[in-house]
TrEMBL record:
InterPro entries linked: ABC-2_transporter_component (IPR051449)
Name of the protein: ABC transporter permease
Source species taxonomy: Bacteria, Bacillati, Bacillota, Bacilli, Bacillales
Coiled-coil intervals, chain numbering: none
TM helices/strands, residue ranges: 12-35, 55-72, 93-118, 130-151, 163-180, 212-230
Keywords: Cell membrane, Membrane, Transmembrane, Transmembrane helix
Subcellular location: Cell membrane
Amino acid sequence: MRRMLAIGRKEMSLYFYTPTSYIAFAFFFLLFGFFFSNQFLYDQIVDVRPIFDNIVFLFVFAVPLLTMRLVSDELRQGTDELLFTSPASITEIVLGKYLAALGALLLLVFGSFLYPLILSRFGDLDQPVLWMSYLGMFLMGAAMMAVGLFASTLSSHQMVTGIAAFAMLIVLWVIDWLFYSKFPDAREWIEPFSIVGRMKDLNKGIFDLADVLFYVTFSAVFIVLSIQILERKRWR
């Protein structure tokens, strides 16, 4: 546990020295602000739900930028051998790096509170909708961070891992949209396995433990896959 937290702290500090992190943060907040102002000025309604409709689009681009160096940078610099021979287990290494990714995600989540705060000056916000939407935003972001972490274990080239993460995330998004638009009859079969569909109830202010468990399980699957990939590299 102590080693995992130490790795997490080290990785979190690296976010503040990496240009791609600032690009990801700038991209996220600029577009989040654009969607917010566009929606609010257009509808003149104090409602946070339209803001969160675009959150998956923002994560598809921001998450690869925030995760692509997590493991690939160790592989590129050759420091992976030092890491693999350290007393820390592969599980502790992966979880430490994932904790750092969640730390970056929390910065995005907390930073975006600015927009509901502005909205609250013009009327009362629906509190269950607000907090459940933020819970959904964090859970979906955590699931996508796990996908990005997994992609970063695949190659020593950050660009390759970034593209791989982007491709996997956009497939998850497009498959969801494709089935909804082309195969509406299959919607009830696909929605329970959709990272986008699972957010719909949360965005309405409805808490369902099954939605939370889905995102936790989804993240755990990609964390386990990341551990398996690194275990293979360790003994190669």
